[in-house]
Design a protein that fits this description.
three-stranded antiparallel sheet; two-stranded antiparallel ribbon
Length: 111
């Protein structure tokens, strides 16, 4: 399962229609907007630098996608820090294709 920290926003679940958001620390509306913007940009196949722009520059960020490492190089291992998360998104861009992706069922937790 992936966990993206976006400031105090954690996106839990593989980017896709069944992603869940766990958000801590600021107003629900601000955090929801940040998470939705990141996921919308991912679905729209925005460039990696645009995606990284949604991540914290003051807190250490980690992306982890649950799965067997033998199935794909981005599964089952943490990508810690912005450089590693950049590598994660670059691997996704090379190895996966998708069309018409959208997100729904947002869960926002401000506690």
């Amino acid at each position: 399962m992936e966990k993206f920290e976006v400031g105090a926003v954690y996106v839990i679940g593989r980017p896709g229609p069944n992603s869940y958001i766990l958000i801590m620390g600021t107003s629900r509306n601000q955090l929801l907007h940040t998470a939705q913007t990141l996921c919308s940009d991912f679905a729209a196949k925005k460039d990696v630098d645009t995606l990284l722009g949604h991540f914290s520059r003051t807190h250490q960020c980690t992306a982890i996608e649950h799965g067997e490492q033998c199935l794909a190089p981005f599964l089952g291992r943490p990508f810690v820090g912005l450089d590693a998360i950049k590598s994660y998104f670059e691997q996704l861009a090379v190895l996966l294709t998708y069309e018409n992706m959208h997100f729904s069922e947002w869960i926002v937790d401000t506690e």
